[in-house]
Amino acid sequence: MVRAAVLPAVGAPLEIAEIDLPDPGPGRVRVRLAAAGVCHSDLSLSNGTMRVPVPAVLGHEGAGTVVAVGEGVTHVAPGAGVVLNWAPSCGSCHACALGEVWLCANALNGAADVYAHRSSDGTDLHPGLNVAAFAEETVVPASCVLPAPEGVPLTEAALLGCAVLTGYGAVHHSARVRQGETVAVYGVGGVGLAALQSARIAGASKIVAVDVSPAKEDLARAAGATDFVIASENTAREIRALTGKQGVDVAIECVGRASTIRTAWDSTRRGGRTTVVGIGGKDQQVTFNALEIFHWGRTLSGCVYGNTDPARDVPVLAEHVRAGRLDLGMLVTERIGLEGIPAAFDNMLAGKGGRALVMF
Known about the structure:
Distance between the termini: 15 Å
Strand content: 25-35%
Order of helices and strands: EEEHEEEHEEEEHHEHEHEHEHEHEHEHE
Number of helices: 11
Shape: globular
Largest sheet: 7 strands, mixed
């Protein structure tokens, strides 16, 4: 038996419970977690913004050590460190055939599986976003584990599984920030902090961090922000004032609110690019008129998982970490146990802190 944070129903409080995991069958891997990040997507799953079969064990950003492997698993072995990949590509759908593995049509099929049972009553449990990282141990398909990069502590490598891949990919793959360009990052949470560092790595000349909380300024500047703006109805005007009245070349929206998306668009120059990373609800409607779309010539694009291929990009990120260009530890503003996840959700709703990391 292992301890896990169980979501019994959408909108219900998480419950710390003991669960029974099966031995890994063919093509599956059992992992003992070292750490798991608390992501806004977990909050969105718990409150129904995103759909998930329940009861479920959430958590999709994690790393740990292989305990056992099933028949046919050859790329990892017991004792090896691994990073969890919550969105493994199938390699055969239309998106995968185009090389757009982050849009794989089958990536989340495993979330509907029964992967474990509650010890007290045998209730079937689903693995959240495939990997069920809010538990001391988990059993996942072999495609959901990547060898952990050398020289990166497992507790920090956990962040590579979502926040850093997403923030890095938003800058380098979606917005494709070029040397000397100006960038605004909306939302200084875990993904926003990764995006700020990634913009600095890309060689952006000015990096403006935007957040509702003045307390985030020091954190944002430590990540690479050259300027900090407190979010308000004047945000776009302030950003234009910082960029010679032109607006930034690129805006990265990490909040997922209609008003923030609209402001990010408004803060870019004519011909600028806005990448939306934040996940909003269906009720969040963003409107534009036809004339402004023509006149401004701007680009607005969605961004799924940073438009990344984890197998390709995790080693790249690890090299940035080893070279000192990327600081994973500075994303973490709180280290907690499983019992601390609900409070971490509350902090996210209140706009407090960066990444909360569950330590096992």
